[in-house]
Design brief:
three-stranded antiparallel sheet; 76 residues; elongated; 6 strands; mainly beta; 53% strand
Length: 76
C-alpha cells in the first residue's frame, strides 16, 4: 500500500553544500502541477527541474550543478 502525505512538504536539499549534485525531496497530498526552478544568487533563473503534473506522493529530484560556477543557488 502506498502512503499518501497528509500535508505539503519541502525537504532540505542534501548534501549541502554540494558538488556536483544535490537531491531535493517534496511531498504533496493532492494532484498538482509542479514547477521547480533553480536561481543563482542574483535571482536569475538558470534551470528548470520540473514543470509537470504530479500525483499525490513523495518525490526526489536531483540537481546537477556540474555546468554551473560554484556559488549560492536557490531551488524554488
Amino acid at each position: 500500500m502506498v502512503s499518501v502525505p497528509t500535508a505539503y512538504g519541502l525537504g532540505q536539499n542534501y548534501p549541502n553544500p554540494f558538488h556536483p549534485t544535490t537531491t531535493l525531496s517534496f511531498s504533496m497530498p493532492e494532484a498538482e502541477h509542479v514547477i521547480l526552478d533553480v536561481f543563482d544568487a542574483t535571482g536569475r533563473k538558470i534551470d528548470a527541474l520540473i514543470d509537470a503534473d504530479r500525483q499525490p506522493g513523495t518525490y526526489r529530484v536531483i540537481f546537477n550543478g556540474e555546468n554551473y560556477s560554484p556559488g549560492l543557488y536557490s531551488l524554488i
